[in-house]
Amino acid sequence: MTDVDVIVLGSGFAGLRAAVAASATGASVLVVEAQNELGGRSRFSWANIMGAGTRFQAELGIQDSAEAMYEQYMRLNAFRLDASVAWALCAGTGPEIEWLADNGADIRGVVPNESFEVPRIHRTGGGQQLIELLLKLARAQGVDFALNHRVDRLLVEDGRVCGIEADGQTLTAKAVVLATGGMGGNNSLIQEWMPELSALAGDWVLPVGGDELAPYAQGDAVPLSAAVGAQITGRNYYEATIRPGYVQVSNPALPGHLLMVDATGRRFVDETAGIAAMHGAFNAAAAPVYAIFDEGAKTSYKPTGEKTPEGKPKRRLHPDWVEDVVDAMVEKQHFVKSDSLADLATQLGIPAAPLLATIDQYNSDAALGHDSVQLKDASVMRKVVSGPFYATEIRLSSIGFTGAGPRVNAQGAVLDTKHQVIPGLFAGGECAGGLAGPMSIGGNPTATCFVFGRIAGESAAAFAQE
């Protein structure tokens, strides 16, 4: 006699979607959450979700299909994904967005991104809204919850996963769904599974959102599943954004007026490029990388003085670069400051001649209104001419998504090292390996959570009824 039909580990998007899907079949479901509140890191996400063939695209005259999305998704990821798994993901995105809308989610439009050929990124009301929606559905269907229980191991009997052990207590189930999220808050797992990122970020590694969200990104699915023979895949598959060392909660891009150079003193990327471009550029650049600007840029970048509808000061898009913050960070030695560019180069350890040549070219391009080196939008370029001059190191180090985890098949079942199904074990969302590849694609993380959360939940419930 088991305690419950299905145990779901984790209460973010993937875990709650799995719980809703499993309980909709009549299965009894228990969601086990390691922290003291439900929702995980999903509560803090923008919750943009990629999708194809939706009514929201049709309303904007966008012609799209799951087939077209699948072809582009595979190509973007260099065909490093299992075709059946990638198809299940892409084919499931449109219906999942429709399901969300039908259940009250606020779909606020469809926008393009740097990866896809047509607009596919569906904006939502944000993570908290979607978590509340999922919790309402789960509770209405009788899902139970257990907080403050971090699972120590999976129980196995006769080759089948049959429950969990947490805090010395055991709970039995006919099936277990792993939905524990990524590993961005666990430096030891990052070093093991994301060595490329670890080398770039060093001790700056943080999940997007900073230290306070690290407990929600511990990568528990990796050791838990590996201990029962799961195949772990997705090494060096991640999405990360750039930030200076004094910033924990960063924007995914720098203010457009900044000039960025590597250790050779040369520009290596359009400073306003998106996440995917920065990923590749930082991997190719000679570290360390510095953002440089002058006194004129610093003094011009102030709080807006405007008010929000609630009467609070309206902040700029990049509040960490406004004048008072820069001055404070100079005092804390997060910036190098100098009256001359040649001395700035010396302090940074950069060869002065190429740095001065880079800045001369940048200034000339800014005056002419055309970036001849990196093709940045000239409207945001600003000459670097009036001292003192400032520089701060930039690293690719804020982790938004990690793709390493137990490999799953198209039904969300976890596979062992011989590509055989581990009976009773399923996974969905960020912790499931093989859903995302080496390419950072906007809306991908949320899609893996909802589509494979549903798939894993339905499959677990079906297995429990066998």
Automatic annotation (TrEMBL):
Keyword annotations of the record: FAD, Flavoprotein, Oxidoreductase
Alphabetized PANTHER family for the sequence: FAD-DEPENDENT OXIDOREDUCTASE 2 FAD BINDING DOMAIN-CONTAINING PROTEIN (PTHR43400:SF7), FUMARATE REDUCTASE (PTHR43400)
Protein name: Unannotated protein
Domain named FAD-dependent oxidoreductase 2 FAD-binding: residues: 5-444
MF terms in GO: oxidoreductase activity
Gene3D superfamilies, alphabetized: FAD/NAD(P)-binding domain (3.50.50.60), Succinate dehydrogenase/fumarate reductase flavoprotein, catalytic domain (3.90.700.10)
Reported cofactor(s): FAD
